[in-house]
Specification:
Elements: E1 18-22, E2 28-31, E3 36-39, H1 47-62, E4 67-71, H2 83-99, E5 104-107, H3 109-117, H4 131-147, H5 156-172, H6 182-185, H7 195-203, H8 209-217
Parallel strand pairs: 1-4, 4-5
Antiparallel strand pairs: 1-2, 2-3
Helix pairs in contact: 1-2, 4-5
Length: 224
């Protein structure tokens, strides 16, 4: 896979369905460009049952996706509790996408912030101990301001991150849902996009986007 510049040409034809995924053991964000949800397993679930629940929920909701965009690991958090299990979840989800022939791209947390806020360090002026939490709020605010999507309630920061990822994928495919300045869009150049799948994604025959979106939000919808 290779990167692409910010001069991605506008594409014609049906709008592709792109799903953003911000993976977490407690609250996984999943979103399109105009909706967002948080998958929160019951507190009693641990270990393999929890991993299975999250993977099943995700695969139910992304089965119609043309492209998935997944947040990569924050390498500075490698010593945190649960990191080993979270890494396992990441590989289980990306393996499930691969198994279903759903192309996916991985976006570093820093580039997610660049696309949303124009900088990888939006909270740089705040005390070091507060920067991470403040930056999450700034990304959430940016999602509301740039994309008109309000992420509220439990998992609101995870929802916002997933929405940014979905917008990045749509932008790369030449179907941006919002016009962003180049200082934001430069984040696209740092992503290893599945360029070999781009033509197939854009040339595939699809049903109306509203019909597909309904199936993504409602995982109980029948069909394959």
């Amino acid at each position: 896979m290779s990167s692409t510049g910010t001069d991605t040409p506008s594409a014609k034809g049906p709008i592709p369905l792109v799903i953003g995924l911000d993976l977490s053991l407690a609250s996984t964000g999943i979103a399109g460009v105009d909706w967002a949800d948080a998958l929160r397993p019951k507190g009693t679930l641990r270990g393999h049952p929890r991993l299975a629940w999250i993977v099943n929920e995700i695969t139910d909701r992304v089965r119609r996706a043309d492209l998935a965009v997944v947040e990569g690991s924050a390498y500075g958090h490698g010593a945190q509790a649960g990191h080993h299990e979270l890494a396992g979840l990441w590989w289980m989800v990306t393996q499930a996408l691969w198994h279903r022939s759903i192309p996916y791209a991985v976006v570093a947390p820093s580039q997610l912030k660049v696309y949303a806020c124009g900088t990888a360090y939006p909270a740089a002026d705040y005390p070091k101990a507060a920067r991470s939490k403040v930056a999450k709020g700034m990304v959430r605010d940016a999602v509301a301001q740039l994309f008109g999507l309000e992420c509220e309630g439990s998992g609101r920061y995870d929802k916002a991150d997933a929405a940014v990822l979905a917008h990045m994928g749509r932008d790369w495919l030449g179907h941006p849902a919002a016009a962003l300045p180049e200082r934001h869009r430069r984040a696209l150049t740092a992503v290893a996009w599945p360029v070999e799948a781009r033509s197939r994604i854009l040339s595939a025959t699809r049903r109306p986007p509203a019909e597909i979106a309904t199936e993504v939000v409602d995982p109980q919808h029948e069909g394959v």
